Amino acid sequence: MNSAPIAKPAGSEAAGSLLSVRSLSVEFGSFRAVNEVSFDVQPGKTLAIVGESGSGKSVTSLAIMRLTDYTGGRIAGGEILFRPSSGEPLDLVKASDDRLRQIRGNEIAMIFQEPMTSLNPVFTIGNQIAETLILHEGLSSRDARLRAKELLQKVRLPDADRLLDRYPHQLSGGMRQRVMIAMALACRPKLLIADEPTTALDVTIQAQILNIIRDLQQEMGTAVIFITHDMGVVAEMADDVVVMWKGNKVEEAPVREIFAAPKHPYTRALLSAVPRLGSLKGEPLPKRTPVTVMDGGEPKLVGETRVQDTANYAKPILEVEKLTTRFDVGKTFLGRVTHRVHAVEEVSFQIYPGETLALVGESGSGKSTIGRTLQQLIEPTSGMVRFEGRDMNAMSHGERRRLRQQIQYIFQDPFASLDPRHTVGYSIAEPIVVHGLIKDRKAIDRRVQELLEQVGLRPEHAKRYPHEFSGGQRQRVCIARALASDPKLIIADESVSALDVSIQAQIVNLLMELQEKRGLSYLFITHDMAVVEKISHRVAVMYLGQIVEIGTRQAVFENPQHSYTRKLLSAVPIADPQRERAKMRIEGEIPSPVRPVGQEPAIHRMQEIEPGHWVALEADAIRGAA
User: Fold this and answer.
1) Could you give the number of structural domains in the chain?
2) How confident is the model at residue 621 (pLDDT cuts 50, 70, 90)?
3) What is the pTM of this model?
4) Distance between CA atoms of residues 138 and 134, nearest Å
């Protein structure tokens, strides 16, 4: 298959374009990451750039901002013509550094994929947003702070006054991403480049953010370049779509045409891998399905259809009883605690051998806190956790160390969880060495190579460093590392959220295959409801630190009883650009989990409405109850 770049025919359309990219090539040393890519962005329109990890999507967006200059890359050829508010069209490839500084953040803004590595850890959130407003709009510090508060409220961050004075590490992954979006929208740019802007967000916040971007387009005629692997978001947001593969543009068309009649084999493979909500209706168990992948330029079907009947419900491997985790956040001058974050409040559930329990809910609902508490990264305030019948609090130091080998964690932010000083091969081998699973060095190296191949990477990747991989590739390295110690339970915290749909489908199938072969159990923390439907046996829905509905995947998805569960499901973007539907919106402020000492939250009482399907009675306590 010839994967030569496709040049867009010259025409009158380019004359009115806000941005015209012509034959853009970007190289990192001798490696060409983007090869002669051309496209146009029209004022007020959205262009989606899609493709698998490493296809050149993010490099293309960085090149438009000329940020590749600072990451070891260089623009090897082509033009990037931008039409600023005043003056003649400007070729950003040839623009001076001073001119680029005037444009970046002001007329062209960017939302980056990994918020923790994009925010400065030593400055407060308020200072970082205000800096943009002071620099580009000349606001006073006081006015900039007021505007920063308005922006945080606009992206639905709770307790905006307090957040202005907090630091990035004190926020959840989803909250940090919303701060990045607020910063990007601060100066109402003409062009917004959004590189996976909703990756770390649950579906309800994603729906709100997409609405904000749409509103900005209507108000200001803002154009958007939307880089994403979520084809549901593409269907809802995009006017035009560019499909990239191995650094080349292989297809470009209006969004409806791409979905209705994809021409390139890679585009067809990409769309076939999209998980579709409702595809397992009537099925009591999760199901593995074949995935179309590209092999030598041609599509190839791999895998088999197999019902995931792996769970053994005789005895749970993990039992959680009334788990409570709180954090002190406010103190007086004398050190007396005044406020606490009630991250998790009296949560109880079980996970059985061979079972996948999905934990879903909004950012900040306590999902990741539960995972980190189970991994012994956070000390619980109260409650009991039993693993294979043993109380974690009663375990000796040696038993706790052994437990860390049996419970492995796949973190949400792959870049922050990999040591930049070591090769990925070293990072994958580390748990094998630490737990003494394999002694022979050559055997360890062979095991590392096997793990890399299992997650879709090549053996030679073991010698590379984390910064040499795309975001999706780094997440696959983290999955390989989690598998290295042969665990019994894996806590997967947004483990496939950074992956494009084709790799995501392969990783989901891999996790299910490993579950069948090894009897693995998963606590699957995610905001992607379509993936939850595909992989999970049971689902627990969390809101403000408590479980409000729990049951089998079929019961929760096909008969959701809690108003909040129904809104989560209604907010999922559907990969069909011709489908119009009215969403149930979650409006207003998200209540803050921060409470003064002594003001304890009310604990929801649960009711069993059918065997194994429990729902919180206080449904009307959730805002916007249906």
Assistant:
1) 2
2) very low
3) 0.77
4) 5
